[in-house]
Specification:
Layout (H helix, E strand, L loop, with lengths): L6 H15 L3 E2 L1 H4 L5 E2 L8 H6 L4 H7 L4 E3 L2 E6 L9 E3 L2 E6 L9 E3 L2 E3 L2 E3 L7 E3 L8 E3 L2 E3 L7 E2 L3 E8 L7 E3 L2 E17 L11 E15 L15 E4 L2 H31 L14 E4 H7 L5 H17 L5
Parallel strand pairs: 1-4, 2-4, 3-5, 4-6, 5-7, 6-8, 7-10, 8-11, 9-12, 10-13, 11-14, 12-14, 14-16, 15-16, 16-17
Antiparallel strand pairs: 18-19
Length: about 325
Amino acid sequence: MRNWETPEEMEFLGRAVAVLQEGGLLAPESLGSPRPLDMRGLAFPTVSQCKIADLPTAVVDRITGRLEFSNATLRDVDLTNARLSFSVWNSCVFERVCFDKAVLNQARFFGCRLVNCTFRSADLRDASFAVGHNGAETEIAATIFERTDFRGASCNNPVFRSTSFVNCKLDGFVFDGALCDDVGFTGKFKELTFRGMPNDVERNRLRINLSHAAIMWLNVDYGIDLHQVILPSDGSCLIVKGRLRAIKCLCSRLPKEAGKYGSLVADVLRGLFSDRAISALEPSQDMILISKAMIADFAETDATDIANSIFNLVRSIAQSEGFLV
């Protein structure tokens, strides 16, 4: 791994950054290096470090200052342990780039395309994936996020295809206007949040795989279609359609058929999902997910048998009334 401190390494860095700033191709062949291009541990030096290394002014100008790149392509680059916080990437392409253990606090990706990349144990806190200045959406395909920290991060109309989120920290992260096609989630998640785009039927089809996930809340709004969601394999979740009618039916029957605990669950379901909810869902949101963990929380009980009994009752009522997906 390079140490990025010697004059030779800084000069190499200057050449690499020059390629990026010119919107060129940064790859092993462009710098005559072995594959993959070894940029591990990259940390852009300060002006004083450059002066100590006695670098030419042209090189210093290239590798210090604000890190903003446009129309560049990075291919077969290893950025393990790189420090790229506050970097800005406009309409850039990343192919087979390793961001494992990289620090990307407040990094910005505008209209970028990331294909076959990895973000294992990467720090993406307060980062963003957004639409570019030319209206191009950021697309992420065949990419792995594993133990990635997304706290404080955001996205706007991204496209995720054949992408995996494994044991990631997604607290507070909203898949806002995201097109999700063959996206897998593995691990334990208290909540996952998806916000659709009104009247965009194709984009609102949520094609995600939760078979290897344990989830309490799946927050969806603005017309998200859950028909193609693959539920956790342990049977801990169900999907209800015809939300308003389904909630009215459930809230009518649960108190009668499950007593005190049924009443508690009905009260919360009504408060969350009916047309009289305090924070009402958008009318086009016709489907919701209900989990055993939600039921246990609503019933205010740690008794597994009680939570299971009410959850099974919810499933039975939804199925008999034609609301179960």
